[in-house]
Amino acid sequence: MLMSAVILLSGSLLDPNPGLIFWTAITFVLVLLILKKIAWGPILGALEEREKGIQSSIDRAYGAKEEAEAILRQNKETLAKAEAESDRIIREGREFADKIRAEITEKAHTESQKMIGAAKDEIEQEKRRALDVLRNEVADLAVRGAEKIIRASLDGEVQRKVVDSMIADLSTKQN
Question: Any transmembrane segments, and where?
């Protein structure tokens, strides 16, 4: 306030007054020194701390971005590996199914061939048995016929009757 009164008493504000300039400069320097001692250090410290905090945040953000990109690359690689693995498993499954199908088909074919062979063998055995039975019957008939021929006289008419009788016996046994 004292300064304001001095300025007003001295005249115009635009007129240079050396005393006023001197005291203004001294006051400015004193305020500057006081601020430097008291406030300048904490203000600069706070600004530096703020700058360090901002730089740290930027560095962390870049680090997080790089880490996220690395994780993304790793996830893509893992996904590609998983897809390749699933393709391999599917391919192996199909190959295994084809192999099993071929084995089952081969086994069924082998079994059917065995069954056909067994059936043929059984048919052949039945055929042999039937032929054996037929031979035995023919032999019996021949023996009976020979027996009848020997018992009967050997004239032609008797022989014809014996043969007709044997044929009749044979036809009755077949039916």
Answer: 20-40
